[in-house]
Amino acid sequence: MHRTLRLALVFVFLAAGCGGGGPKEDFQKQANAICKRYNQKIEALGTPSTPADIPQLVAKGIPLIQQGVAELRALKPPQELKADYELMLDETEKAVPAARKLADAAAKNDAAAVQEALKEGNAANQKSDRLATKLGLSECAAN
Question: 140 in a domain, yes or no?
Answer without folding.
Answer: no
